[in-house]
Write a structure and sequence with these properties.
By secondary structure, the protein is mainly beta. 0% of the residues lie in helices and 41% in strands.
Length: 173
Amino acid sequence: MIAVRCPHCHVGLKVDETRLPSDITVFPCPKCKKQIPVSVLNRKETSPEAEPETSLIGTVRATSGRLTVVADAEINTPAQVFLLAEGMILIGRKSESSHATIAIATTDRSMSREHACIEVKKNAKGGYKHSLSDNNSKNRTLYNSRYLEEGEIVVLKDNDEIILGRTVLRFNE
């Protein structure tokens, strides 16, 4: 077995080089599906019943973080957890007319139905960058005890607090 790192998504892999076909020049990464180039210099023969050809070293994350809604009986908000995936995520109060990607179950009328946005992008190191902005909400977005200005975008860090109306959210990587 040899250790290999995907040049595209940087996931660590263990590859049994003795099980690679002699004519192979590339194989797909089990995480990002892009081609990883192969160059085999020495080859030993083993039985086909041996270990699988490729296995992951470390976990593949389909999500890039999570938002936890802090329970609050006063505004009828249960604890909720939302996993974040790559892309633009619209956060707001759950209702029939909301187009929010993350629709929070609450009776907090000070939270807009489409209150804030988080954009999740992959960075060069294979991790994720989370950018928070207000979505022109009536009551604004509070980020770590500070209101976001119109058009302001902040990069979230682990354990940041976001308040939409009176509803408290916690961001974790």
